[in-house]
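Sequence only, no structure available. Ideas?
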Amino acid sequence: MQITNRIQFNNLRGDIFGGVTAAFVSLPLALAFGVASGAGAIAGLYGAVGVGFFAALFGGTPTLTSEPTGSMTVVMLAGLFQIIFGFFKRCRYLSQILTR
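Reply:
I predicted one. Tokens follow.
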């Protein structure tokens, strides 16, 4: 399969629906990250727009993942580590390290 840099309109409908779906998913997540950071919901929106703009400008791979997906992966992995540490009763070691 040859990848070209030309715009192809044969899959425009799928691209539009994919973009709208990604917007519906990333909008509440961007608002939540802005509020959680303490900067406010509008900062989350500006951050999502900025990441989306630069990912589209400098991106170009069919499997490009941007927007809040990267930071959500970190949050999910942190939760997974907390569950694993709790299951193996290692939380007391972690709390001793963090309180020093």
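The longest helix spans residues 12-37.
Hope that gets you unstuck.
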